[in-house]
Amino acid sequence: MMELVCPAGTPAALRAAVEAGAHAVYCGFADETNARNFPGLNFTPEDMAEAVTFAHARGAKVLVAINTFPRAGAEPLWHRALANAEAAGADAVILADIGLLAHAADRHPALRRHLSVQAAAANPDAINLYASAFGVRRVVLPRVLTVQEIAAINREIDVETEVFVFGGLCVMAEGRCSLSSYATGKSPNMNGVCSPASHVAYAEEGRDLAARLGGFTIHRTPKGAPAPYPTLCKGCFTSDGQTGHIFEDPVSLDATQLIPELAKAGVSALKIEGRQRSRAYVAQVVRAFRAAVEAQAAGRPMPETMLARLTEGQKATTGAYAKTWR
Amino acid sequence: MDLTVGPNFFFWEAETIRAFYRDLAASPVARVSLGELVCSKRLPFWRDEIPAAVEALQTAGKEVALTSLALVTLKRERKLTADLMDLDLPVEVNDLSALIHIPEGQAFWVGPLVNVYNEGTLRWLIRRGARRICLPPELTLDSVAVLAQAGRDEGVPVEVWGHGRLPLAISARCYHARLHDRAKDSCQFVCGEDPDGRDVGTLDGQRFLTVNGVQTLSQSTASMALKVEDLQGAGVSALRLSPQSRDFAAICGAYADRLSGKISGADLAAMLRPMVPGGTLSDGFLSGPAGAAWSGEGTAAPR
Questions:
Q1: Distance CA A193, CA A196 (A)
Q2: Which residues participate in [4Fe-4S] cluster binding (chain A) (predicted)?
Q3: pLDDT value at position A305?
Q4: Most Cβ neighbours (<10 Å): which of A291, B44, B155, B226?
């Protein structure tokens, strides 16, 4: 069966994910070492050890994301996170930075290393480089590839691949985007945040609600209409008289129906985005995807997705997996 | 401190490119990285200009490197990357996968699109053969200082983004094609209509971003005009100037005058403002609070 890798922003969400059928849960420490460094989220080293005990007792794995790029002069914070993950009994760490991968391979050789989507390894050459230089065993593929390209990659590499199937959707190569820090000073790579709430301001202006990020207007919606969160790349902008969602509509990813094709393409694990989501959301999504991977393993058709209402009324897309998206 | 000119991001006519590098050969820059960085579909239209440009630049005494693509996904793009090794020039790695083609210990440059955020990464790249490293534009001055020192300790010069619209993101999707309701495969090369990219503003008319095919740039032109002393103090060895369609030779000259002390930072900024596309400057990644900010008079920040 394909491995289902599920998000946990809190110990409660981790328990919910495991009880709902997650084969593996990914989570991070409550500091800038992880790419979902949001207030009120994430794990202390003690939480992590307890989470591993809980998950292992139920046959599930815990993958610790240490996937920001260590700040110059502050690498010991990231090195401690690695040591804490190993001490907690984590099944793997998810890393993006070359220097941190080198340190992990050198100092924690027995700790399994996965390559984060933030490393943007988008072709077999990059993946084989990370595998040979740092002993990476699994790669989370960037969301820039079609299913066909994923199949071609799997034919040329010896490590496992993991792909995103549900949740938020980056339209840029991840780990290579500084749009957020251009507008706010805070970035995924350096601070583990994108379009942070601390820099969002709403203003009622005439009949509109304007949503701004770092002072830049991301969208305007009529008062009373649902207003999506002002994520920079999903904003409504103008160019030479044209107005629209120039980068991407406010959509989210749902690749449920592609699971059989992804299995045929040689993908080992399916990842659900959403460490910032509630325990109830995580439980619902995990249950639905566990049913889907079981159906795939049994050769049954994919269940009709029940998840539309979980995407906050947003449209769903299969994103870059379909070539026409480009 | 000296000057490096980075690869041209935009899709220009072959004749334009020929004239650009001919002029650049006469300008006071120490080295040039050139080649197609953004989109492999463009390369056949100007590939034949590369040997002549390299020769003109080398004859003028400049160091030359060939850049890799920024995002390599297709088979043909992997082949193009492998073929870079045939030209007996250092490769500027802007996608890490290029390293698989470079034998251990063979010298290469590292471009600003490789994530070098800390000393561990910098040292690993140097052990692997990096002989020049241009840092990502997103870094703060504190980080730049630590990394420039680490480079000095290893004898490898560290350079920073000096001038040009900032490369903020790269995608599989072509935004130029999308703006014309086309898919990437049937783009008809519409990016060629915008020699400095196509500007994207907010619904309130704020200047914000610029799209260039699969690449998203800042609309402001980042400039280290006011930061030269800070960067010299930090141990940075070169400024990278990124090509724009107009007045580029004059811009190179103006930065050279700034480095030699002939003009002040304020003088340089005043000279640049009418020359850069859109007329706004930024230097906020270095000193905050956000990349779009400008530390001098006037502001690039949204109002």
A1: 6
A2: 170, 177, 194, 233
A3: 66
A4: B226
- Which tokens go with A240? 């030479």
Q: What is the CATH number of domain A3-169+251-325?
A: 3.20.20.70
Do the interacting molecules here have an ipTM over 0.90?
Answer: yes
> Any idea where the domains of chain A sit in the sequence?
3-169+251-325, 179-244
Going by the annotation, the residues of the binding site of A for [4Fe-4S] cluster are 170, 177, 194, 233
Phi/psi of residue B291, nearest 5 degrees: -55, -35
Q: Which residues of chain A have pLDDT under 70?
A: 305-314
Residue B302 has pLDDT above 90, yes or no: no
Q: Which residue has the tokens 């009324």?
A: A313
> For position B86, what pLDDT does the model report?
87
CA atoms within 13 A on the CB side of B228: 23
Cα separation, A231 vs B79, in Å, equals: 36
pLDDT at B262 over 60: yes
Determine the 3-state secondary structure of B202 from DSSP. Answer: strand
**DSSP code string of A161-223:** EEEEEEE----SPTTS--HHHHHHS--HHHHS-SS-GGGEEEEEETTEEEEEETTEEEEEEET
CB atoms within 10 A of CB A205: 12
Expressed in angstroms, the distance from the first to the final Cα of chain A is: 31
Cβ distance B212 to B135 under 8 Å? no
Chain B nearest-CA residue for A219: B203
Distance CA A285, CA A39 (A): 23
The shortest CB-CB distance from A189 to any of B117, B178, B285 is to B117
- Tokens found for residue A181: 């820090």
- In 3D, which of A192, A181, A195, A208 has the Cα closest to residue A234? A195
Domain layout of chain B by residue ranges: 2-166+220-287
Strands B108-110 and B130-134: parallel
Question: Among the CATH numbers 3.20.20.70, 3.40.50.720, 3.40.50.2300, 3.90.79.10, which is that of B2-166+220-287?
Answer: 3.20.20.70
The model's pTM: 0.95
Give yes or no for a contact between B116 and B93, defined as CB atoms under 8 angstroms apart: no
For residue A134, the distance in angstroms to the closest alpha carbon of chain B comes to 11
**Tell me: the pLDDT tens digits for B217-253?**
999 999 999 999 999 999 999 999 999 999 999 999 9
Residue type, position A326, single letter:
R
Number of Cβ within 10 Å of residue A301's Cβ equals 10
* Rounded Cα–Cα distance for residues B91 and B68 (Å): 7
pLDDT bracket for residue B300 (50, 70, 90): very low
B195: Cβ contacts below 8 Å, ≥ 6 apart? B10, B12, B16, B245
A103: chain B residues, CB-CB within 8 Å: 120
Q: What is the pLDDT of residue B134?
A: 98
Are A278 and A41 contacting, i.e. CB atoms less than 8 angstroms apart? no
Taking the C-alpha atoms of residue B222 and residue B129, their distance in angstroms, rounded to an integer, is: 29
